[in-house]
Design goal:
The chain is α/β, with parallel strands linked by helices. The protein folds into two domains: about 220 residues, Rossmann fold, CATH 3.40.50.11820; about 210 residues, Rossmann fold (3-Layer(aba) Sandwich).
Length: about 450
């Protein structure tokens, strides 16, 4: 946690509210000042408050690639045309050649406000704050941050959300010119829950491209980066144990595919979503990280490590003694994935997902990877915001306790769940082919020409 967040945690609520109000007033004045400058039609600003990830990242990189292929722009010229605004800049190892052409700006900095004030196109996956004002000749593309949401959104749960949030959401929708969707189901959702009445392009989700085409988006390189977080001695030991297990299977006459599954270090990602409050439960199972890992190895082969990747708003809650979050306490085989900005790079490199209510369950299942749900506080969670689907009927194994999770992993029926998931996705009519980011990048190019 950085110093700014530490100060927020210890400061009196009144002081925080006063500071925020003052800061927003200053930003509004800066927007008015910078609106005196001309809008540059071919200047594009991508934004994601949580970091260099989600849909804006992959669209930005595809747009850079498109500029390189179709124009005579140099890298430095592209850096004057393509900007990414975020609170969390990427690690050096997350920045490929295309990302290095992008100019990164800190959220709410003067340079970020100037970029937003003068750019011809905005691309975001979150709501813009109330002090951000779009000019008449700017184009705002909204990609949203949930390709297939489980939790009810905005006008569909307006009694749950604050009046202030609803007002700003409506204002943001009125500013938005284009929504990007992945299905007719989401088209209808955006019309109803967001009240959006303008153009929707059903291109698919850019962040899904990384899962559908992992080789194209260097999932192997990300896998190596994650495993490099293990201590050398642990990595060598796990790899050696995997080879020994595979050799024994060869002697026993196991088939080639089965041996291949054992000859590697596999990655399970634990990615729970955010809760407004953590709900304690009286009985915890006695299962540990070790037992969950053992179950994964027994069911899927090879050796396993777990990458923990929490929602940014959940970071302060994961160590709650009796929280609804799964506790992994075997540190040598647990990798902290929170330093990486983009969850979907991690998922593309992973073999298994464990989550609770995050919509990444649908995305991982769509590409055929095993998904396990661990939800200890289902009733309370569902009673507050509500869900679009009956949780108990989702095509995933569901656990209320760590022991149930352990048993669900051991008894996982890949073929049976895959069939259920395909029927689920067919009913929704999802449109994904791994080229959504390219389509949005080409749309942007048409808009700025």
């Amino acid at each position: 946690m950085d110093i700014r967040n530490d100060m927020k945690r210890i400061a009196p609520e009144g002081a925080i509210v006063k500071y925020r109000s003052m800061r927003e007033s200053i930003i509004e004045k800066e927007f008015k000042l910078f609106s005196m400058f001309k809008v540059e039609k071919d200047k594009v600003v991508f934004s994601n408050v949580w970091g260099y990830g989600d849909n804006p990242r992959w669209i930005a990189e595809n747009y850079v690639r498109l500029l390189k292929r179709t124009t005579n722009y140099t890298n430095s010229m592209i850096a004057e045309k393509v900007f990414f605004i975020t609170n969390k800049p990427p690690l050096k190892e997350e920045m490929n050649e295309d990302a290095q052409c992008i100019t990164f700006l800190k959220t709410n900095s003067k340079s970020a406000i100037y970029a937003l004030s003068t750019a011809g196109v905005w691309v975001d996956c979150n709501r813009k704050e109330s002090y951000i004002q779009k000019r008449r000749n700017q184009i705002y593309i909204q990609t949203w941050h949930g390709s297939l949401p489980l939790k009810r959104l905005e006008l569909d749960c307006r009694d749950y959300l604050s009046p202030e949030y609803i007002r700003n959401a409506i204002r943001d929708t009125q500013m938005t010119d284009i929504y990007i969707s992945n299905s007719e189901w989401c088209n209808e959702l955006y019309r109803r829950a967001f009240g959006f009445k303008k153009k929707i392009f059903c291109f698919g989700s850019a962040r899904m491209d990384t899962l559908i085409r992992p080789v194209r988006f260097s999932a192997g390189a990300m896998r190596e980066k994650l495993l490099s977080r293990l201590a050398d001695s642990v990595f060598r030991r796990l790899l050696n144990e995997a080879y020994i297990k595979a050799f024994k299977m060869k002697e026993s006459g196991a088939d080639t595919d089965e041996k291949k599954d054992h000859l590697r270090i596999n990655i399970a990602v634990y990615a729970p979503t955010y809760r407004d409050s953590v709900s304690p439960y009286e009985e915890r199972g006695n299962e540990t990280a070790g037992s969950i890992i053992n179950a994964l190895e027994a069911r899927f082969g090879g050796k396993f490590v777990v990458v923990t990747r929490y929602h940014p708003l959940a970071m302060s809650r994961v160590n709650h003694i009796n929280s609804a979050y799964l506790k992994f306490d075997e540190t040598e085989r647990i990798i902290d994935g929170n330093e990486f900005s983009d969850l979907y790079s991690i998922l593309a490199a992973a073999d298994v997902l464990i989550t609770d209510y995050s919509n990444c369950m649908f995305e991982m299942a769509y590409v055929g990877k095993p998904v396990f749900l661990y939800a200890t506080d289902l009733e309370k969670y569902d009673d507050t915001r509500g869900m679009y689907f009956d949780y108990e009927k989702l095509p995933f194994p569901i656990a209320r306790t760590e022991k149930e999770l352990y048993e669900n992993i051991l008894s996982y029926d890949r073929k049976g769940y895959r069939q259920q998931q395909e029927e689920f996705f067919d009913n929704i009519g999802i449109v994904e082919n791994g080229r959504a980011a390219e389509k949005v990048a080409k749309l942007i190019q048409r808009l700025v020409d």
